[in-house]
Design a protein that fits this description.
Helix content is 33%, strand content 25%. The chain contains 15 helices and 20 strands.
Length: 450
Amino acid sequence: MFVRRGDHLQKILIANRGEIARRIIRTCKRLAIQTVAVYSDADSDLPYIKEADEAIRIGEAPAQKSYMNQDALIDAAIQTKAEAIHPGYGFLSENPAFVRKVEENGLIFIGPDARVVELMGDKVKARETMKAAGVPVVPGSDGPCNSVDAACSAAEALGYPVMLKASAGGGGIGMQLCRNREELSNAFNSNQNRAKAYFGNAAMFVEKAIENGRHIEVQIFADQFGHVVHLFERDCSVQRRHQKVIEESPSPALSEATRKKMTEAAVRAAKAVGYRNAGTIEFIVDEEENFYFLEMNTRLQVEHPVTEAITGLDLVEWQIRVASGEKLPLEQVEITRQGHAIEFRLYAEDPETFLPSPGTLAVWRYPEVPGIRVDTGYGEGSKVTPFYDPMIAKIIAQGNNREEALERALAFFGEMKVEGLKTNQPLFTRLLTASSFKDGQYTTALLKKS
């Protein structure tokens, strides 16, 4: 039985929706913890609502009127006598004001404290913190660039091409590759406006662009007793518009020596900020395997099942235990890795333009394939609305090695049927048969070339 500070943890409210809500519910059921689901008008018929022990309507379809409504979420937790809130990912998961509000109302936030969320949410401050901790960072501007002229001066000192980034950004929002002064000047105001609209913070900064690099992240966990461990890396280099599409572990292009240095740097980064709970340290790796800190995600990641597949651990359970005051379940030497796992994000989008393609899942069927895990928030007949991220499911293929995982994924996508809207399934089928992906030597430029 799960125990928190000598008492049974009885109820968690999940401040999220879809497949992540179902994922959290699954672990809570195994731990005999009751769950409260919240839903907007657009999600009233989705499967997770029926799977939770209780469900509360929190507002209209737009996220700002429902899943981003802090007061509605807190009220729902108090009304249902929930003891803790799990934020999932996206929405309010990295909002320090929400973390404080949760704690001020006597509830447990299943994640890091507001101080760390705020510090790591500011990319400029995060860079400075990592530099002080001896973690390599991408060469960039000293502090934020508050004007076009400041950004151009920083870019000229670094040398083009550069990446223009929002200090409070994430998910590729407010980010743009600029190859010369004209491109940077044209991009600055629009990206600044997007950053202000999405994050309430218009601060921008400039980094040297590392082209033909690999995007590799390290899963870390920490408890309140100062223990920090890593759970190996995930290669997230297959991206479109700076958003991840495929993630795998172990990285097929990382040497053991670099892997060791990178995981040690990730643990050092977490210790430097007094981290607690699940987090991810993201790095960019150049062609010589030099790696540099990009950002820290202070939450559970969409791609966490990849780590679960290779370690056999339940990361949501670890989150709950750490948030409840327990020590980490395992020490570093006890955490082992087996086989290979790859996650494919199935989106309701045009496979050529990557534009969202909302609609009804008139047909949504997939085969039972050994080594395949499907995390989905939808059933056949469900509507994928334009109000939220258009991800339909995550397909996680596991094998004794990368080749076996790829074969299982190809078999799965060959039989999977989705009708009623467009998806990026053709992209996966194409990549799984392309030497550029099969050989594992791809970079973040893969989809630009495919």
